[in-house]
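Tutorial handout. Part one gives the primary structure; part two gives the three-dimensional structure as tokens.
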Amino acid sequence: MIVGGVILCAFGRKFFKAAIFVATVLAVVFLILLLFYTTFLSDTTADWVGWTVLAISFIIGIIAAFFMMKLERIGAALLAGWGGFMIGALINEMALYKAGSPALFWIVCIGCAVVAAILTFFIYNHILIIMTAFTGAYALWRGVSMYAGGFPNEFTIADEVKEGSIDSISPWFYAYMVAILITAAGGAWFQYIQLNKMTEEEKHPYKKLK
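Part two.
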């Protein structure tokens, strides 16, 4: 996550197809695991079952990513939508977690994802740069937190609040938030420098699809 985050944050727009590939694989794996662990599987499921599901998820994700790379319009929307989803998750952790509502979590996350995805059809370069910079910065610092700790799980925090196991967020989380925003701003700035060096045709890849 640290290495991938740095690359996505700094070169998300330049390595457009590679970013689409990675985002598609991650999105498919995430959705399959979410579906299985909220229906069939649990924390007590045998390890080999979990690894098998994970392996199959990656295979399906790679196949889906291959086709998504051919559909650049949809791929760009998916890539931006993933960044929007992450923004929604952080909004929940920063401000809405005390509601203790899993439903609110999903409404905000999916809403942000849909808005970001739609905007790629109108302001392609700006949304793609901002979303990849933010997603990369998030992945970078989420990876760091796996060693340093202090970054709560955005997918379980609503349930934990509801169950009373936590009542407040660690101050370290807000330090991570500042680091994510600063890193994302730096990544977007670097990507805009690269964008300004591109030709007009390179800036608007949709032209070749018409």
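Part three, for discussion. Confidence is low (pLDDT under 50) at residues 206-210. The chain has nine helices and no strands.
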